[in-house]
Amino acid sequence: MKVKMILPALTEAESPFWRPIKYSLFPPLGLATLAAYLSPDDEIDLQDQHIEKLNLDDEPDLVVIQVYITNAYRAYRIADHYRDKGAYVILGGLHVTALPDEAALHANSIFLGPAEESFPRFLKDFRNKTPQKIYRSSIRTLQNMPVVRRDLIKRHKYLVPNSIVVTRGCPHHCDFCYKDAFYEGGKSFYTQLVDDALAEIDRLPGRHLYFLDDHLLGNKKFASELFEGMRGMNRVFQGAATIASILDGNLIEKAAEAGLRSVFVGFETFSPENLKMSHKKQNLARDYSEAVKRLHSLGIMINGSFVFGLDHDNKDVFKRTVDWGVQNAITTSTFHILTPYPGTRLFSDMEQARRITSRNWDLYDTRHVVYRTTNLSTRELEEGYNWAYNEFYSWSNIFEASWKHDLIKHKLKHLFYTGGWKKFEPLWNFLIKTGGLNHMLPLLESILSKVNLNERREMTVSQPAIIQ
After folding, report:
1. Which domain holds residue 15?
2. I want to staple 346 with a disulfide (CB 3.0 to 4.6 A). Which of 42, 176, 181, 255 is the partner?
3. Which candidate, 219, 284, 217, 215, places its Cα nearest to that of 254?
C-alpha cells in the first residue's frame, strides 16, 4: 500500500512575517508516530510543506493529513485534490477535533482526539474494506507503542531533529487552551513508562533534545524518575513548565541536573483578574520574579509566553510586559494576541456573547484580532503587539537584559541565543537554502552548555572590568 502523510504549511509560514527558521525547527513527530503502526511492506512518503515543496502528482492509496487551524483551508484543498484522484483521505489533529463537521466534508474518515489507539483500529478496518467515517479516541495510553518512524524524517532540514514527546496533554485547563477539546472524553494528561521514554532518548543521536510536551513537569513522579534516569546521559535539553512547577519542591533542580538548559514558561499575564477569568489557577498568587530568579540560579534560560488582549488589559500592558521581561532578563519572549480557538471555553463564551468577529481561520494566528475587544481597540491591540516584539528584540534591550545576569558566561549565552535567534535572519535563510541548517546544532549545544555556578563569587568580583 502506498501511503502519503502530509503536514501542510501554516498560513503564517507564508505571510510577510514569515521567518523560515521558525518553521524549520521541528519535524512532524505526530505523523512519524502514526507511521510506526503501518506495515513494513507499506511504501510511506512523509512530507512537511514547511521545509519542502509538496509533490501532488503521485498516486497514493491512503493520504493522512494533520490539520491545525491556520493550515485548515490548505489541508482541505490538498484533501479534495487527492480524493478527486481516488485516494482514501483521512484528516486528524486539533482543528478536526474542534470542528469535525467542517473537516468531514473533505475526508473519507476523520480522527477525533489522539490517535495512538484509533489509528491501528482504522488500519484494520481499512484493510478489511470496512472503514468508519469517524474514529474517536477511546483508550488513552502510551504503553506498548511501536518505535517512532524517525527514518522518515529528513533530519538535515531541521535545526532540532531530536524533538520528543513523552507525555500527552496537560493537567491544567485554561480557558484559551486549544488542546482541551482534543483530549475531551478521556484522560487529558498521561505519560509514557519511564523506561520507554529513556529508551527513546537513548536511540536519538547527538546531545541536544527538545521536549515538545505541553508540561514536562506535569506528573512529578514521572518527571522525577525521568530526570534521574537521564543523569549521566550527557544530554542538554529544552522543554516547558509552569510557574507552579518551578516554584514547588525540587523538581526543577532535578531537571537542571539532568541537562535542562532552557524552558518555555507561560507567564501569559500579570493581572490576577485576567488569570481568574482564564482559569489559569496555576499562576495565581505566584511570584513570577521569584520563579525567574530560581531558573537563573540554575543557569536555565527562559522563553516567556505572554498574551495581550485579555479583558482587563489596557494601553500600558505592552510597555509593562516588555519592561518586565528586560528587567528580569527573560532570554526570549513569545507574544500572542488573545485568540479564541474553536473548541475552547473562550470561544464558546465569546460566541455566546456575540464577540467573535471573524471565522476566517487563516487569521487565527495570534497576530490578528478576531473578536470584539474591551479596553483596547483592534488597532491598538495589533499595533501594541507589533511594538512589543520590535521593542523587546531591539539591540539595546537585548544587551541590557543580557547584562542583568551575574556570570559572564550566562551574559554571553543570553546575548548569543537571543541575538542569534532574532537578528541574523539572512544567515538562517542562507543555511536553510544551502542545506546546512543541521550543522548549527553543535553551536546550539555549546550555547546551551552548563553554567558553572561555582564561578559566581570569582566572576562577581571581576564583573565591572569585564563589562567595560
Report:
1. 2-136
2. 176
3. 217
Answer yes or no: is 37 within a domain.
yes
Residue 53 domain flag: yes
* pLDDT tens-digit map of 272-323: 676 566 555 555 436 888 999 999 999 999 999 999 999 889 999 999 999 9
Contacts of 83 (CB under 8 A, 6+ apart): 89, 106, 107, 108
What is the model's pLDDT at position 276? 61
Say if residues 120 and 37 touch (Cβ distance below 8 Å): yes
Nearest to 416 by CA among 402, 430, 428: 402
Do 335 and 264 belong together in one domain? yes
Closest CA to 135 of 94, 100, 168: 100
pLDDT tens by residue, 385-399? 999 999 999 999 999
Domain count, the chain: 2
Read off the pLDDT of each residue in 219-248 and give the average, rounded to a whole number. 95
Do 334 and 283 share a domain, yes or no? yes
* DSSP string of 282-321, one letter each residue: GGTT--HHHHHHHHHHTT-EEEEEEEE--TT--TTHHHHH
Domain with residue 88: its CATH number is 3.40.50.280
The answer as to whether 286 is a domain residue is yes
